[in-house]
Amino acid sequence: MENVLALLFGNSLTRLVFFPTVACLPLLFLRGTRAVRIYALVVSLIELAFCLQYVATHWGPDGFPLVRDAGPDGGPISWIPSFGIRYDLAMDGISMPLVVLGVALLPIVLLGSWRGIERHWPAFAASLLLLTTGVLGALVAHDLFLFYVFWEVMLVPMYLLIGIWGGERRIYAAVKFFLFTIAGSLLMLVAILWMAWTYQRLNGGVWSFALADLMRLELPLSQQIWLFAAFALTFAVKVPMFPFHTWLPDAHVEAPTGGSVILAGILLKLGTYCFLRFDLPLFPRATEAAQPLLIALALTGILYGALVAWVQTDMKKLVAYSSIAHLGFVMLGLLALDLVAWQGALLQMVNHGLSTGALFLLVGMIYDRRHTKKFEEFGGLAKVMPLFAFFLVFSALASVGLPSLNGFVGEFMILAGSYRALGWPAVVASFGVVLAAVYLLKMIQLTIWGPLTKEENKGLHDLDAREIWTLVPLCVLMLWIGVAPQTFLAPSERALRRVLAEYRQGVERPEVAQATLRPPADTAMASAAATNSGTETGR
Amino acid sequence: MNRADLISLLPEMILTAGGVLVLLLDAIAPRLRRSFTGLALLTTVAAGWGAWEAWAQLGSALTWNGVLETSRITLAFSLVVLVATALSLLASQGYLRRERILSGEYHALLLWCATGLLLMLRGTELLTVFVALELLSLCLYCLAAFHRQVSLSGEAAIKYFLMGAFVSAFVLYGISLVYGTTGSTRFAEIGQKLGAAGEVPVFAALGLLMLIAGFGFKMSVVPFHAWSPDTYQGAPSPFVAFLSVAPKVASALVLYRLLDAVIQGGGQTAGRWDDLVGILAVSSMLVGNLLALVQRDIKRMLAYSGIAHMGYLLLALVVLDRGSLGPVIVYLLAYVLMNAGAFAVVAMLYTREGEQHLISDLSGWGYRYPLLAACLTVCMLSLGGIPPTMGFLGKYVVFMNAVSDGLVGLAVVGVLASLVGVFYYLRVVYVLYMRPESRQPEGLLIDGWGRTAAVLAALGTLILGIWPTGLLQWLWEATGGR
What we know:
The structure holds two protein chains of two kinds.
Chain A: H1 2-8, H2 13-22, H3 33-58, E1 67-68, E2 77-80, E3 85-87, E4 90-91, H4 95-112, H5 121-140, H6 144-153, H7 155-165, H8 170-202, H9 211-214, E5 217-218, H10 221-238, H11 247-254, H12 257-282, H13 284-310, H14 315-335, H15 339-370, H16 381-384, H17 386-400, H18 406-422, H19 424-447, H20 465-483, H21 485-508, E6 516-517, H22 524-533
Antiparallel strand pairs in A: 1-4, 2-3, 5-6
Chain B: H1 3-8, H2 10-28, H3 36-58, E1 61-63, E2 68-70, H4 72-98, H5 104-122, H6 126-144, H7 151-182, H8 187-197, H9 202-219, H10 227-234, H11 237-243, H12 246-265, H13 270-293, H14 298-318, H15 325-349, H16 365-368, H17 370-383, H18 390-404, H19 408-434, H20 448-466, H21 469-479
Antiparallel strand pairs in B: 1-2
Helix pairs in contact in B: 2-3, 2-5, 3-4, 3-5, 4-5, 4-11, 4-12, 4-15, 4-20, 5-6, 5-12, 6-7, 7-9, 7-10, 8-12, 9-12, 10-14, 11-15, 12-15, 13-14, 13-19, 14-15, 14-18, 14-19, 15-17, 15-18, 15-20, 15-21, 17-19, 17-20, 18-19, 18-20
């Protein structure tokens, strides 16, 4: 306890993860919507400053190293020693971009919700802050038990965000979101327990949930398949992969703008991130076996999401379905098991957070004005709202993958990498790019081009300063990534290489008939971690 | 009788004396009635100190000719019972004043219930356990009927009493059968005799089954659960905070002792007892969760959810070893905190005792009573097993125990059952925060005592869920588990 408190006051991941929670306490006493809004915004900016400070401190010349929160003795901090559960927070090049994205979206979401949220601001701010803690914790936890706790912690605030501030069918959407997500994760809990128990059995009764320790388990394919399935189900629901996607359109459409941005921006990424962090390296053989099926699902998701998006008449639904297609791309990139594809997938996770986040914000802005999201109610908005039109076109083009904007780099790398590794699936997926252009341009055409027919739209006022400043950071980042992608690819390359090497080793090792435990020195992870942070991870 | 005997009985003596004192004061100084809650609470705390002191002085010991056990395990169980008593007492004051039934008897009976429970969980011999069980049961019947003017309270009591009396006869007959075949009423000797015989004779098995049924009834395990929804619904809510948790704590330990004795006799039949407990566990989880799903009355919903929770608890006893006790006590502590906390809030937010306590009556009250609603939400999430609450920790240790014993299938069933649970617990949260108000608060009395109960329960659930390190270490040392 003292160790964690000490970390809380230093430049550490603990501070990054728990500062939002601690900052919730004053919300109990703050009165008045305005005060709460400003307080929450200040907290989110401080959190962003903490995040940038942390990243800047550890950014190395050859990428972002693995850094972890260590106790005073330099070793990992024990949380529940009876079960060998550790308080093990660590960040590497894979989680870093997503953490930064998650933290950076927080002030944007608050600004974007400034007027859209009318009731219960203290609860809204508290939900967002607690959600941030859950998300960041899940991104940096390297102990599976701790990870599971954070993973579940995310559910309740998101449930409240959708259920309290959502649209017409918000209750249905909130409950569906909750049940879908928890159904997957409870099975993952059993899988985690089983792995920890097996580890304990092979390790002379010493328990551990540490990722690095459980990586040393060498399991036969028959067991790997089940464990892989339990993990994959959880993450596939979160991503969401076809056919587990049905909660997403409901949740997105009903959620308030801020909730949608958080959901699309960072929550969905946790699914893909965890595939990369846990599922693939822990169960390489099962990954290999399930690869064709999962690729088929990813491709289905790309085409299905795009086609369904095409026929939508509601702007928000269209963006929601486009998320399914985009996340399908990310999954395809991950399943290609190729470095370039992985780099593209990681970049695309960030890209999707930026461009889809911006699109949801824009939909929210127009909804605040007109209280409708139907295409048929709009048309010719460019004449009365030129700034709105500019940002919508910009974000949509980024989402489509226009060269020199961010989406192009991510999609191109995914397609190039997966063509190299897989062949024809990349060809099928490239149709998804075409379809993306079709449905997004349709949205643009129907809303902002054409004649201004509706009387109600003639008096609409353009974006105000607050709304512009909500969008500008996102657009700057989109352009930056598109023009200079290397800056964003470099920090993660080493971490991705390491995970890929682990995966390859796992596949190449001879198949075992029974669960066995490799000695610690064998894992690349342990040695890499030891050199990076100077701490010992293996026992 | 020597000094050790007396010291070992310290907590029970304190509780009994406290009860008597309250009753006397009620007769001679009725104007002091409002302070009875404080007095009873003080007695409970003193009893906790007494239990600690007895253990500190005696260590692990058997007193009263080996009839009464003092050990870290009984201490842990006793403290859990006393926590439940304290929470129930805190919730009672406002309720009793509101319903105009504040009197000494209520407090005295509750303290004597606790006495019976402590004796029951410390007894190493069946007759002692039976006497303690009767002491407990009689007080419970009276308390269930305590709201005399409300007919539903009487109905609750009579249902509980009839079934309970029947079960007492069962238990007594079971004891006689076990005594007849093994020649002893002590758990340890029964185990030895059965072990020497290498099997469980038919009549002993019959007797043991009757005993399991009896304690299963107190724990409201399927198929002995039918009384609990009706009784919970009619009985005074703050008392249900006690009834729904404390008897289950002691009964679980007695059940453990019984099964432990049987397993020693094991031989080739040991597996069948495992199967029996497994069937009880699975049927409780499924029946409890599925029936809770369709309840509209929050007290009935909590009754069915309690049945389901006892199912999870039994998972830890399916493969019995000494390591099973750790998960059991952690689960019970979690259950006590979250369930008693929930009933404490229910006691404050519902009037019109005897009528239905509709969940939908809480619509929108999350903003009217932010503190109580937050406590109720924490308790509900904990009951649903969502981290970082104690309820999650309890589920975790129980499932962990099941997986370690190779019962992955049972663990998966438990996990799926708890998924059903999440749905109806969430409904309370949904009603609190996401629906417009439908009811004006009328005649509510929300006092500091009751708030304290709710806050203590919710905070305990959260803090022990986030930082269980010390607690677990202490318990695991006690039970010699992992």
